[in-house]
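User: Hi! Is it possible to get a structure for several chains at once, not just one? Here's what I have:
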Amino acid sequence: MQVRFAGIGGQGVVLAGVILGEAAAIEGLNVVQTQDYSSASRGGHSIADVIISKEPIYDLIVTKADVLVALAQLGYNTTKDSLKEDGLLIVDTDLVKPDREFIGAPFTRIAEETTGLALTVNMVALGYLVAKTGIVKKESVEEAIRRRVPKGTEDINLKAFRAGYEEGLK
Amino acid sequence: MYLKLSYEIRDKYLRKDMLPTIFCPGCGIGSVLQYTLRAIDELGWSKDEVVWVSGIGCSSRVPGFVDFDGLHTTHGRALAFATGIKMARPDLKVIAFMGDGDTAAIGGNHFIHAIRRNLDVTVILINNFTYGMTGGQVAPTTLKGLRGTTAPYGQFENPFDIAELAVAAGANYVARWTVFNYLQGINSIKKALQKKGFSLVEFLSPCPISFGRRNRMKTAPELIKWYNKITVPISKAKKMSPEELEGKIIIGEFVDRDRPSLDEEYEEYKKRAKKIMGWEG
Amino acid sequence: MRYPFPVGKSDFIQGDEAIARAAILAGCRFYAGYPITPASEIFEAMALYMPLVDGVSVQMEDELASIAAIIGASWVGVKAMTATSGPGFSLMMENLGYAIMTETPIVVVNVQRGGPSTGQPTLPAQGDVMQAIWGTHGDHSLIVLTPATVQEAFDMTIRAFNLAEKYRTPVVLLSDAEVGHMRERVNIPNPEDIELVYRKLPANEEEAKYPFGDIHGDLIPPMPIFGKGYRTYVTGLTHDEKGRPKTVDAEIHQKLIERIVNKIEKNKKDIIDYETFELDDAEVAIISYGIVARSAIRAVKMLRSEGIKAGLLKLNVVWPFDFEMIEKIAEQVHAIYVPEMNLGQVYHLVKEGANGKARVELIPKIGGEVHTPQEIVKAVKRCEKCI
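Assistant: Yes, the chains can be modeled jointly so their relative placement is included. Here is the combined structure:
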């Protein structure tokens, strides 16, 4: 299963990928996670790839994504061709205007409403992704969040994740 | 001061199967080596607790002649190797025997950083104003106007004052003497060896064959007379004007302080790390 | 003993982090380094861990000083490592030669990035293979390992230390920016289950007199480390068995250098490590190493599904090199493909090994993107047609 997160620098795209990967690792699955970004820390594109499988993984980057999660128009434009024809496109409906079938929700708005920080948009999107696809268990992601986010921010990130998850269950 | 007979020092500390040395007649390195060995002898240090390090050059050949553990390394890098030795085994004493070209040119960066870190090492520096082993090229210490094969019309660059550099960089003990000042030399080396942190004892040393010959001082006595003419003891220099000091080299003890050495700081660092990570006890 | 990271279980970490943890488990207690992308993470991990395990981590003024410091530490008996990338690796060449000449065990990690010069600091490449093998001047030999996964980065680091200690030689771990920064699940074994090697020390005072002599007949002299009363003299000048400089003696030089080279060459069987995938009945072989080998494995599967009998030889050690094995493969297949992220380096070794018995084709790719399996398949099929 090839999952690609795309956005712009500052949205926490890479962290979302790392957490998804960690969750899969917690479940004992094989995972490879890589990232690509432009040199600008804020504003340039940011891409995180996560490949999850029960078998040993030889691929490195996502060539044909099963799922593409796009959090910004620039991120979407850069990566849209890597999504399979029948792949699943998840977008932040406020920020991305895709040119194909998609599902999604206003992740950034939900982040702001739930936690007051647009910065947690990555957790909201992650929650939505997990609810819609079930690639990993909710509990695995929550454990991964506890391990990976900066100390003191666990609660706020978990809150954002759960909000996205609830949205995805609708 | 009672001085043992020099062949007692020789028999105790030199590797017989490595003699004769490569040094030319009139070279000052042998004398400085003798002062260093006398200092070690008077301090009563065991041969097993000292490691000698050196770079490349005539001076750097010294560790090969002494019966201690010795690391003869690459040009200019002695202090970098010494950092590894001292930090991995802080209980060992490290002596770095180097030349002026090795220390101030290619080794310049390693020199100032070793001092900045206050690495606990004693540097015995042979300053003969030239690259002796390779035939007499100018060095960063060659005074203006003096000749070398790469500046045959007289050095046109400004020289370094290595001792001043060391003081400015933060060394704990810095002294400079000529090879003729044997009592002061031995005492300075003793002080330097006992001092924790970076210590430097620089010796103006005659190189008649590569340097002297090109500067109309073909013999060691002529060079030593010249040193006596151009050097000024620091106590006297303090009372002289900049014009009077023009062209003179100051000798004496420049600084003597006790800033903590690198390995002492690192011990504290380890304690701090364990405390921060909750690893105490 | 307590470790600052979980042991005996698996963890989801980057290649660089895996290398640092493996080094600590291998017994490395001295690290000197200089910041450089993409290897800084190794340094930062070592800086975090070393003070806690009573080791030393120090930032030197440049890469020359870094490798010098670890050589110094090795001579007082401490296992030592440094990590860098292309530009730093070039600076280390001088002292790498010194370590080879003085037979000092050290581990040097090169996390390869796009070169030459400052190049592409954040993107992977395989452009330093020939430099790792031949970069330092003079005749010499050393060991070069090439990991392709984060687990291999971990396992090969431990192997690197063991080989360095066993053969009294520097070992280069040739990683790259991709393996360095990707995250995978790594199994970290229990420290008790890891086999570690320490250098041969002299058995008695007589043996200690010959720090550079083949007194055991295995080409590896015992190492009389400093601070034990052996009064060893170590120099980069040509020296005799006792370590005394003898620079104008042709016989001594020949004997010394040939022994240093043969120390590695004659022990090829022990040092070389590789894996094969579907090579037994292959008609077309792909020879690959490092990160590219992953795409090559997938490419072999894809070619087989299209009816082409492809097989893969994955090199885990690129030096010493088993030329005879390549010749055997060349006798079996009719074409060998070498995909590399450079303009042809291991390709030349393979070509020499094949000895004309099979066509050898290079599949080069530079720019920082790893070969995709599809690209390798396409290249193989394209040339199959032009027989």
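Residues 154-169 of chain A form the longest helix (16 residues). The longest strand of chain A covers residues 83-92.

User: Great, thank you!
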